[in-house]
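Give me the 3D structure for Cell division protein FtsL.
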Amino acid sequence: MRPVLYVLTFLAVIALGFWAYRENYATQASLREVRGLQNEIADLRESLSVQRAEWAYLNRPDRLRELATLNFDTLGLLPMEPGQFVAADQVAYPAPEIPAITAPVDVQGETSAAAAAPAASEEGL
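Predicted structure for Cell division protein FtsL (125 residues):
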């Protein structure tokens, strides 16, 4: 009986060692993937900060003013005046389009014709 118990214990130790070996490599692969994702996130954040800096540089008020002055004839821009602003209730919004009725549908169906037919047959009796 003891040799069977020793063999089963030995097989269990081998199985647990194999499982631990596989889990170790799976964990290492997951850690490599996480490091790769963290590097990608860092690169994207750096790219975003560069784009924000470019946006801030391109939207400098003095640069935009100079561009508007250079392209004044082409764009036809006019200075903003207080009379150009109105309250929201003064804005003329377009009326919503109501679709035309192209194929009317009889919602009562044959009920009125069917009710009239029995009444006519009773009169004939």
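The mean pLDDT is 85. Let me know if you want a second pass.
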